[in-house]
Amino acid sequence: MNRVLATAAVLLGVVLMPGAARSADSAKAPDGKPVFVKYKCGSCHTIASQKIVKKAPAGPGPEAPDLSGVGHERKTEWIAAFLQKKEKIGVSMHEKKFRGTDAELQKLAGWLATLNDEAAAKKMKDVEAKNAKTK
Question: Is the pTM of this model over 0.70?
C-alpha cells in the first residue's frame, strides 16, 4: 500500500509540475548548440540560458532577440520553417535563410524548441513588437 501511495504521489507531482512534459521532450531533443555555433547564429542572437552571448554589436536593422524562451512560444516545425523563410513574425521574415542540411535544421529547430524560459519568452515578444513598430 505504501508503495502504491508513493508511486501515486510521484506521478501526481510530475503531472502538476510546470514544464514536466517539456522536460521529458528536452531529454529526447538533439543538442543543436553545435549547429547554432557552426552557422554563427550567435553573431546576432544571444541565448543567455545556454551562456551564448551575441558576438556582434547591434546593427542598424531590427534587434535580434535572446532565444532563451523561443520554445515557450513556438514549436519545432514553426522554427524550422521560419529559418527557411517560410514563416513570418508579423510582416518580418528571418534575416538569413538557414543554409545547412535538413538534418542540421531539424537538430537546431528541435533544440531551440526546448528553450522555454518564460521570462525570456516575454522579453522576446517585447522585442518582436518593437521590431514590428520600426518597419
Answer: yes
Q: Which three cell numbers stand for residue 35?
A: 549547429
Torsions phi, psi of 92, nearest 5? Answer: -100, 140
Residue 121, C-alpha cell as written in the block: 519568452
Q: Per DSSP, what are the bridge partners of residue 89? A: 92
Q: What is the pLDDT of residues 109-128, one digit of tens each?
A: 999 999 999 999 999 999 99
Most distant CA pair in the chain, distance: 66
Q: Compute how many other C-beta atoms are within 10 angstroms of the C-beta atom of residue 130.
A: 12
Contact present, 112 and 67 (Cβ < 8 Å): yes
Q: Where are the domains of the chain?
A: 20-133
Q: Please name the CATH architecture into which domain 20-133 falls.
A: Orthogonal Bundle (1.10)
